[in-house]
């Protein structure tokens, strides 16, 4: 429930902050933010599992999602978005 409230609050703040951005900026920001949230959720799942192999896989997936988020942010900055 707390995560839902956090996501809703973040979405509200993003919509206010996005007023001065182009649609491309908004799409890049949304994609990056979604990947960051996915990474956080995967990390939380890894912490809550008792299977070490599954936890390692979840942490790897979390790190990959964070890397993808960073790549989107860097591409947006590099392309002047």
TrEMBL record:
Tell me where the signal peptide lies.
1-20
Q: Which UniProt keywords apply?
A: Coiled coil, Signal
Q: Which residues form a coiled coil?
A: 28-78
* Species of the source: Sphingomonas hankookensis
The protein in question is named Circumsporozoite protein
**Top-level taxon of the source organism:** Bacteria
